[in-house]
Design a protein that fits this description.
The structure is a homodimer. The first copy, chain A, has 15 helices and 18 strands. By secondary structure, the first copy, chain A, is α+β, with helices and mostly antiparallel strands. In chain A, helix 1 (about 5-15) crosses helix 4 and helix 5 (about 165-175) runs parallel beside helix 14 (about 410-415).
Chain lengths: ~450, ~450
């Protein structure tokens, strides 16, 4: 067993250098969903490999049919556990660019209030800043002790923001190399600025694009209006039918596999004291828009949703064009909970849409990823060790929460590698991930590094 | 009175030169709805003024707060009538550009079948080709006789495709100069390739943009989905409520002022022998999508509509983005008939939308033009003269029809200048106006010129 104090000291002393390294990584616009940025994704992977090698990892860029993986290995003392750390180096698109106050790829340290600093830019919170907290903890361990306290394998993917098409085949092909005692997954958040959290449930996701077509060309709405089918009108009718007036989803069998949350869990969540006004107030809202009669935490942690993430059809430029579009499309996603089956949800939605397509219109579907929800066990020994380590670092003790978002990797680790995950991260709900002006708290970055040092120490005891 | 034959001969001999002139005008991308093309609109106006001067018109570019007008005057014999010819030199946008087979601004003469030639490009049919048929008829008259058979004033506007904001003030300010015995308006079509038509009714138009806003930023649909209001969902609900299952518009008082078409008129239209399959078959459709139980001609000529001309919100690029948009918008237009009041329709729609905006969302409206429907008198003397002249030129006699589109100028001439309009044009329903690959029949261009020569002669008798 190695002493923790010099590791924490090394992290404190090296903070500025660690910020500079993160800025280098943020500078690479690794937008995975847009094929135009494929070379940048590879560059981000190469940057990480080079950095991990300086720490002493055996690291390499590993090709896939899509963006490459980064895999790195480092030994630990005999008898120590073996952990797999997962993060992703790809980021979301940055449009609309005009809403950013600064260049999204030129990270800045900004003092937003006296003593309160943030790191700005795309990927600072999701997920480059988060994954670097772990890398920096490893670097400090090597600096202080010349060794890591346990065996560490690192896996960084580059397709997390675009449905992870290469991930499953890669895990299957490299199962033996990647299997560890458990995984550490950092793509999650704190409960609040003072309170670290461990996530024990995550919603699943089904993404689907619906394209409705009618005439074989755009039509003049004077000449054909009233006679010709309008795909925007058909699409609006279809989407409007998805929710009833109480916010419940009307797709047949959609709620199959959804369980009611046990009352003691609901009570725990209630105990966190978060009102709908507080939760939604951060983004300028105040009234929950989901199923009636449920708390806002239950809505985002334990209830499924149907969301329309994008819609387009006809003339959308400046001014007006009296046109009836030849086609219109929507990007639709479903958040899943408990035992909802992604494949069944996708089929149920497609059947629901097809039933509503009138004569003269056709519909095409394009799938965009799917993963079931995750529910982790509350009684694993590493969960309690991590909880203690986190509680030592932060002003308030760690809490067990759930997550509204999806981290498909957690299901894949469970199903393909037989490995549970410990979900710890330092993001805050106002980090504006996926939006303009994404930021990461400097305290998340610094204390996040220290937290991983503590967790590695605790897990190795 | 002057002889018609040499005028027609001059038109036949000058056809190639007239095609070259039209190509010059089409080459100017005078897209009025997009501010980026303002200078091109002015260039088109200047081109027309220069051309009209070569014919002997006293022509000038007349500034407005928007795109300029072209006004030109030419004397006629004492005692001859005074006609005002109206057209517009602005054109629709050309997106999506990738669907065009040729450069939309590089007009080509294409033989699409043996002996069947078309002129391709944006504005060839709407309205540059049409207005040049009249200019060429005047040119040929001057060439053959050194004079016109009647007094002619020409008015070309440059904002017809963007709501004509400057038109009314210009007509009001120049009423004395522009008032004639009647107007000739060329922005209309033939019944079919062999049958010329005079339009006696036109639908009105109300354009409206609806912008719905919720959160103060785009949100991650995992973090906030199920709790936060989604503007795309709200917009879909609003638009879906506009039509009932029978295609009838549900906005309260929407049908105020709509009259049932007299049965003898419906019978005349029935006599034209056009089936829904034929009308819609041209554009790849077959089933009327408007109010149930009405013929396709009644739907487009005598019934009001609500059309969604454009919609956009959230992520619409390639791939997928799990975002809840901060805002979404739709461009909506209403075609009006009979005595429907544009201002009342606009207000009724806004009230209808406002009622459906939930807590946490706001709505903004942007008006985009409005004009009532037009019903012209069947018994004016110039109508019967024009019908006869047209019947002399084309294989089949002229028919009286209605129009689904709006030509606000006709109402303005009536209301502001106390002047009725004769609506004659040579477009065909497959000209793809407002769409990619717009074309104008070479026969429309050539026989259209000859038709105007005949009409001018007939009106002057």
């Amino acid at each position: 067993m190695t002493s923790l104090a010099p590791v924490l000291d090394a992290l404190d002393a090296g903070l500025d250098a660690s910020i500079a390294r993160l800025a280098d990584l943020v500078r690479i616009p690794s937008i995975s969903t847009d094929p135009a940025y494929a070379a940048e994704c590879r560059r981000a992977a190469e940057w990480l490999v080079a950095d991990l090698k300086t720490i002493g990892f055996a690291a390499s860029v590993r090709d896939t049919p899509g963006h490459p993986m980064v895999v790195a290995h480092h030994d630990g003392p005999a008898g120590s556990p073996h952990v797999l750390f997962y993060g992703h180096y790809d980021v979301q698109p940055v449009d609309p660019l005009e809403l950013w106050h600064d260049d999204p790829f030129d990270m800045k340290v900004k003092e937003v209030a006296p003593g309160h600093k943030v790191l700005t830019g795309r990927g600072t919170a999701d997920d480059k800043g988060q994954l670097m907290t772990f890398v920096e903890a490893c670097r400090a361990y090597k600096q202080a002790h010349g060794a890591l306290p346990c065996r560490v394998t690192i896996l960084f993917e580059g397709e997390e923001e675009s449905g992870s098409p290469s991930l499953k085949p890669f895990l299957e092909a490299n199962a033996k190399e990647l299997k560890a005692d458990f995984a550490l997954v950092c793509d999650t958040g704190m409960w609040d600025r003072d309170t670290p959290a461990i996530s024990t449930a995550l919603r699943g996701l089904v993404g689907e694009e619906v394209i409705i077509r009618a005439a074989d060309r755009d039509l003049h709405s004077g000449e054909f209006g009233g006679a010709a089918a309008n795909p925007v009108r058909v699409l609006a009718k279809v989407l409007a039918a998805v929710h009833d007036d109480d916010g419940r989803i009307t797709i047949p069998d959609f709620y199959d596999g959804v369980e009611e949350t046990p009352s003691q869990i609901l009570k725990q969540w209630e105990g966190l004291g978060l009102t709908a006004e507080e939760f939604l107030g951060e983004v300028g809202l105040s009234v929950p828009a989901g199923e009636k009669g449920r708390s806002v935490l239950e809505l985002v942690w334990a209830r499924p949703t149907a969301e329309f993430n994008g819609i387009s059809g006809g003339y959308t430029g400046k001014g007006f064009k009296t046109v009836i579009a030849a086609e219109a499309f929507a990007k639709v996603s479903f958040r899943l909970v408990h035992k909802q089956d992604p494949a069944k949800i996708r089929e149920a939605f497609r059947a629901f849409v097809r039933e509503r397509i009138p004569a003269d219109c056709t519909v095409e579907f394009q799938p965009h990823g799917g993963s079931p929800a995750i529910q982790l066990s509350y009684d694993s020994p590493f969960l309690s060790k991590a909880k203690e380590a986190l509680s030592d670092e932060w002003p308030k003790p760690a809490v067990m929460i759930a997550m509204g978002g999806s981290i498909p990797i957690v299901g894949d680790f469970q199903n393909l590698l037989g490995m549970e995950s410990l979900l710890v991260g330092y993001g805050l709900s106002d980090d504006r991930i996926h939006s303009p002006n994404e930021k990461y708290e400097l305290s998340s970055f610094h204390k996040g590094q220290r937290s991983w040092a503590r967790i590695l120490a605790a897990l190795s005891r």
